[in-house]
Amino acid sequence: MLFAVDVGNTSIGVAVFQDDSLVFKYKFYTPSRLFKRHFAQLARFRSRTSDSDVIVASVVPRLDPSLRRILRSICGVPALLVDHLTPTGMAIKLERPEEMGADRIADAVGALCLATPPLIVLDSGTAITFDLVNRRREYIGGAILPGVDLAIESLARRTAKLPQISFAPPPSIVGTNTEQSIQAGIFYHYLGGLAYLIEAYKRRLGTDTTVFATGGLSAHFKKRIKGIDRYEPDLIFHGLRRIRDIQRENRSSSRHQA
Questions:
Q1: Domains and CATH numbers, the chain
Q2: Nearest Cα to 231, choosing from 82, 154, 123?
């Protein structure tokens, strides 16, 4: 049994794997006053097996100590928090690898589980990120830009007459009221910008590059942006599962060598 946890700035996702099958998942907001109660749902799975692991991709460092404590008390085993030093089977070729988010590491490893590199991962959440993996299975960088909700919040906060709205794909590229105008501006701005980046990155990596889309808002873009090959909403969880498997393989190899 594997408990995989994705701690983002807006929400926390939890997935439970039985062997290679994802059997249960849920999500709640970050942070939450019911933090421990949300994780308590995992206790019913713990009773099914004595062999379990916990792995976490967190981009909210202030929550990490309480995460470790709560997950240990509920799941009965210490949690592995992924970082740039965690063995993943993927080399990180950045100037400062320690700055790389655990979510981006897990996304890239998840893509490597599902396709042969070169690969691009587009993750649309609080921020929108691009992650690039070359033919040698090396992570070579990418891009970070404000997510859709951040862009909408910024407009509302910095202007006197523009309201805070909920995002949805607009009915037309031409807005006929303020809300639709904001939706059209945001939506088509991102459609054009994301398509441009995909095209530019494929010129760098190769025309046979597989492009993955993931993250909560990617569902709005997946059929509208030329160049996206696969939409995988659970990509980060599959990456975390693979990273856990590598840890187990390394431990088994060390025991055999001893």
A1: 2-81 (3.30.420.40), 91-238 (3.30.420.40)
A2: 123
